[in-house]
Structure formats: C-alpha cells, structure tokens
Amino acid sequence: MKALYLLLSFIMISDTLVSQCLDDDWHNTSIQNSWLSCTSSFNPVSQLGNSHWIQFEFDEVKAIEGLKIWNMNHPNLLTAGIRTLRIDASMDGIQWMAVDTLDLEEGRSDKSYTGQAIDDFNSFEARHVVFTALSTFGNACAGLTEVRFNLGKVSTSTGHEYLATKVSIAPNPTDQFISIIFSDTELSVRSIEIFDVLGQQLIHQQIEQTSVDGILRLDSSSLPDGHYTLRLTTEEGLISKKIVVAHP
C-alpha cells in the first residue's frame, strides 16, 4: 500500500507551525516557523500535569503507521530539541491512551538537515494526538521544527460497532461488581480500563484470557457515584461501553 503523508500544523495554545521546506526534506533555521514552548501548561493528558506539549487534531480518525520529525534546528536553540518524546492518542480528545515513548536525535542547524524517520514504533488509530516533551538536550524550553505523519488504512467504524455487539454489561447501574459478558467466547481480551468523564484512567487491569464461561468480573466498589467509560482492548480492536456507578 502506498504511504500517504500528511503535514500538520502544530496546535499549542495560539502557536502555529507552517512548513518551511526548501528542497524536499531540507529545512531553513528560522525560529519563526518552528514551535517553541518555554512555559509549561496543563496537558490534555491530565496525568502528565503541567508540561511542554503539542496537540494535533485530524478531521477524522487516522491510522498512524510512521513519523518523520525535524527536531529544533535553530543554531542557538539546538539544546531545546526534544530528547525523549511521549505520544498519547485519543478518539474523542477526552480519553487518552499512551502509545509510545521515543528517543529523538538532536537537530542540526545546516540546511541539509532532513529530519528523523521513525517507523519502529507502536502504530495506532486516533483523531487526536498529543506529543509531550519528557526531556530536552539541556534547555528549559522545548521545541520542534516539523512533524509528518505516515497514514495507513483505518479500520471502519462498522467493524468497531460490530465488536461492541459481542459485549454486554450487567448490572448497569452497578455498585459493587461489573460483569462483562461476551457472546463470543473466542474474543481475546488484553486489558480492561475505566475512565471518568474527564478522561482520567481510574482502573487498569491486564487480562491474559477471558474466563471459560465468557464472563469477566470487575470490582467497581471503589468508584464514587457517577458516569464512566469502560474500555476493553482486544486483539480485534477497542470496545467502549458506558457504565453508571450508583451506591445505595
């Protein structure tokens, strides 16, 4: 399948990055066309708190199969380039999933700098993507010059909806335990997660396989009253279900 590349503008408060290509993958070193964050702010991925981050938003769900990143290449700001980059993804901009953590190369200030291709990472599907700078090359600021996404084939929404029909929740509302009932006992579940309405992960449980009778039980007694999203990660795809917790 021929790769499709998408060049996106950076979204970080009011900062915008535009392409600054000179010849194919060559770049100039103008700081005006780069993203630079010197003041941390609250990350959309709430558990990361105040940090230097960049958010991308696609017009629809995309399959991300590879990246090409140009680190900060201004001659006076090479140390502001991101050394360790965390990637988080979301379908709705509320519930986030950690995708991967990457080690980036330091940028170069010569115009023939052609960036770093990254193909060996966890591919994923998302509409929203957040890059967070976990470390730089020594500068208190963090910055990048450009990012390109290698886009592949996206699973159809019909497929995800069909998966959801294989799972039911009982009781719902619940107070002590949630029974996750599988109509297809061959469905292979890897993990169970519960998120609150702010997208914070409250429960995460790894699963080796479903039980013999096709039912998994999850203790929900520690959750306060409210509305939550239960997410199952399976080999066939993600399944999300809305649940309500109401204690007597």
Question: What is the count of β-strands?
Answer: 17
CATH superfamily of the largest domain: Galactose-binding domain-like
- Label the structural class: mainly beta
Stated plainly, the CATH topology of the largest domain is called Jelly Rolls
Please give the CATH architecture of the largest domain.
Sandwich
Helix-strand layout with pairing:
Blueprint: E1 4-7, E2 35-37, E3 41-42, E4 50-51, E5 53-71, E6 82-90, E7 97-103, E8 116-118, E9 124-136, E10 142-152, H1 157-164, E11 167-170, E12 177-182, E13 189-195, E14 201-206, E15 215-219, E16 226-234, E17 237-245
Antiparallel strand pairs: 1-10, 2-10, 3-4, 5-8, 5-9, 5-10, 6-7, 6-9, 11-12, 12-15, 13-14, 13-16, 16-17
Describe the overall structure.
The protein is mainly beta. Helix content is about 5%, strand content about 50%. The strands form four sheets. Strands 1, 2, 5, 6, 7, 8, 9 and 10 form an eight-stranded antiparallel β-sheet that branches. The chain is elongated.
Which terms summarize this structure?
disordered N terminus; Immunoglobulin-like; mainly beta; eight-stranded antiparallel sheet; Jelly Rolls; four-stranded antiparallel sheet; 2 domains; 248 residues; elongated
Provide a quick synopsis of the model.
By secondary structure, this protein is mainly β.
